Amino acid sequence: MYKTLKVFTLISLVLFTCSYITYSVEPNDTVLQTANPLPVEVTPAPEPVPAAAPAVEPTPEQPVSSQPDEVQLQAASDFSKEIEAIVMNRIDSFYKNSGKGTMGIYIKELNTGFEYAYNAEKTNLDNPEEGYFNTASTCKLLSAAVMYHMNNCGELELDKTYTDRITKSQYNLKKILPRMISHSVNDYFNITLRHLGSELINDTLRKLGTRHSLVYSEIMPAQGTSVKNNIKRYGISRSPRTTPRDLGYVLDLLYAGKTFGVDNDKLFMESLLDNVYSNRLPAGVDYRSPVAHKTGTSSGEGVYNDAGIIFLEGNPYIMVIMSKGSGSNVQSLFRSITREVYDCMKKRTEGQSSTPQ
After folding, report:
1. Is residue 271 part of a domain?
2. Degrees (nearest 5) of the Cα angle 249, 254, 259?
3. 190-241 confidence digits (pLDDT tens)
4. Could you tell me the residue range of the domain that residue 107 belongs to?
5. Structural domain tally of the chain?
6. CA neighbor of 309 nearest in space, from 281, 267, 287
7. Can you give the three-state secondary structure of the chain, one letter per residue?
8. Cα separation of 315 and 350, whole Å?
9. Is residue 193 part of a domain?
């Protein structure tokens, strides 16, 4: 009987020990699985202390659908039709009065995201990857975007002295980029092209999100640049190509302020606002609002371009106008369209502000 009592005592001790081990593990597991656990104070009492109930988390909100609803779609359609009526009325009149050439227009209302496009993604038939329109000096907008983006990514030092391999002159990219934009200096664009090479510029443009913008060789007139030298250096002498939508997209990136870095955004925007050539978009809005823009002109090819952000109070928007094979009178057409679009945008602003909330 004594042996039986010892065995019974031993079994009881083992059971008690197992019970304690189970208690010391499970509450810890429960705490790890609890999103917002309440602290549990463990006491040496032989009876297990019940674990605190996990905090009740609020039901997550349903994600907002990325698909526009019917009201948004209708509003976007109404916007496009309203702008189209202005554009087509002016363009039809232009052609009836012996106007010539091909025009491309892109407009984006920044508050709503509504867009209007006329030949905005037109490409060349022999190369669908290439935009139809010659950039002329709007290529400087593309080059500046590439360099500011690379600098923001830590891939390019701007504030450093370099030596150009062709002209042997020294340059600082941080200093020449703003003037390349504001005063449209061809030599500075060519320096940026020689600094990076056309392949890297085009690769970076694709990474940024442009679809049909391509740089081939240096632009003229400029020091040390000629058709012969272009063919020697790049295997081709061809003007850069783009589309109105691509130029508008780059301006949209700048306005959003998430691509080029805070300091570069400031330099970039100020250089566009300081553009010394103001006879297209700024003249079109009658200088009533600031316009951050880049012009481009190649009269021999009938190219008259302007791409900018029009800072209409309460309703800023992007507007890009481009031509190819046109006469200089296309500038009057662009000013007329710009003026009427501005008045339309202003009315939309006044209508939105008077709408009951």
Report:
1. yes
2. 95
3. 999 999 999 999 999 999 999 999 999 999 999 999 999 999 999 999 999 9
4. 91-354
5. 1
6. 281
7. CHHHHHHHHHHHHHHHHHHHHHHHHHHHHHHHHCCCCCCCCCCCCCCCCCCCCCCCCCCCCCCCCCCCCHHHHHHHHHHHHHHHHHHHHHHHHHHHCCCCCEEEEEEEECCCCCEEEECCCCEECCEEEEECEECHHHHHHHHHHHHHHHHHCCCCCCCCEEECCCCCCEEEHHHHHHHHHHCCCHHHHHHHHHHHCHHHHHHHHHHHCCCCCECCCCCCCCCCCCHHHHHHHHCCCCCCEECHHHHHHHHHHHHHCCCCCHHHHHHHHHHHHCCCCCCCHHHHCCCCCCEEEEEEEEHHHCEEEEEEEECCCCCCEEEEEEEECCCCCHHHHHHHHHHHHHHHHHHHHHHHHHCCC
8. 9
9. yes
Token pair listed for 17: 């020990």
φ, ψ at 77 (rounded to 5°)? -65, -40
138: left (phi over 0), alpha (psi -120 to 50) or beta: alpha
* Residue 7: Cβ within 10 Å count: 10
Model pTM score: 0.81
Amino acid at 78: D
CATH code for the domain in which residue 166 is found: 3.40.710.10
pLDDT tens digit sequence for 83-130: 999 999 999 999 999 999 999 999 999 999 999 999 999 999 999 999
Q: How far from chain centre, in Å, is Cα 196?
A: 21
137-167: b (≥16 Cβ within 10 Å) or e:
bbbbbbbbbbbbbbbbeeebebeeebebeeb
Contact 219, 194 (CB under 8 A): no
